[in-house]
Design brief:
Layout: E1 3-5, E2 7-14, E3 19-26, E4 31-37, H1 39-49, H2 59-69, E5 73-82, E6 85-92, E7 97-100, H3 102-112, E8 116-119, H4 120-126, H5 132-139, H6 168-180, H7 185-188
Parallel strand pairs: 5-8
Antiparallel strand pairs: 1-8, 2-3, 3-4, 5-6, 6-7
Length: 212
């Protein structure tokens, strides 16, 4: 079982339905892993990672305080994926393990500086290809790769430049991704033949309540 470390590229408010999508980058595979968050939990995670603080401690503040008493976080791992829902295991340095929702794990990841990891087999099944142009257009992301230098996240919240794959599978992956955003082929492709709508979206219902 091989794990892959992911680069977090932010939580994005996606048109046309204003759904919230957490984007992770699989650098070696030149793909991204989109995890759709419920409106409430996604907004809370986005607010907390954006620096908002309330006058009184909120649930995240309490969770972080408790975990710090355990010595902090040792790992954050996407352990499984079933019917569009991602399950995340959070392990503390003193050996405790917790089942965690992706939105909560994102807040913990940002606070403790621990990157997400994921089983390579799960990643291969759920990651999708998106070209550099479409990353910019739909997510506002620009990935810049500097050989021999540490990767830097752009002002728009991203990581590395992705090159086009030049193969039909990459095109199919991209079309799948755009369908999951609610964008029709006519909206993002010109001169592309219509294909049968076989929508196998990678969607996470963070509340596990069937709503996206």
């Amino acid at each position: 079982m091989n794990d892959v470390v992911l680069e977090f590229a932010g939580i994005h408010d996606m048109e046309p339905e204003n759904d919230l999508c957490a984007v992770f980058r699989w650098v070696e595979g030149e793909k991204i892993l989109p995890i759709w968050l419920s409106p409430v939990d996604g907004a809370r995670a986005l607010s907390h990672t954006g620096g908002f603080s309330s006058s009184r401690p909120d649930t995240y503040d309490l969770l972080i305080d408790v975990l710090e008493e355990h010595g902090g976080i040792d790992s954050i791992r996407i352990s499984s994926h079933f019917e569009g829902t991602f399950m995340v295991d959070v392990s503390t340095t003193d050996g405790a393990n917790y089942d965690c929702r992706p939105s909560d794990a994102i807040v913990l990841s940002e606070h403790f500086g621990i990157a997400f990891s994921i089983d390579e087999d799960i990643l291969a099944q759920t990651a999708v290809y998106v070209s550099a142009d479409d990353l910019q257009e739909y997510f506002g992301l620009t990935f810049v790769d500097s050989p021999g230098e540490e990767r830097e996240v752009s002002a728009q919240g991203s990581g590395l430049e992705t090159s086009a794959s030049g193969n039909p599978q990459a095109d199919a992956d991209f079309e799948e991704m755009m369908r999951s955003l609610g964008v029709s082929e006519e909206d993002f492709l010109s001169g592309h033949d219509d294909e049968e709508n076989n929508d196998t979206r990678v969607i996470n219902d963070d509340n596990d309540d069937g709503e996206v």
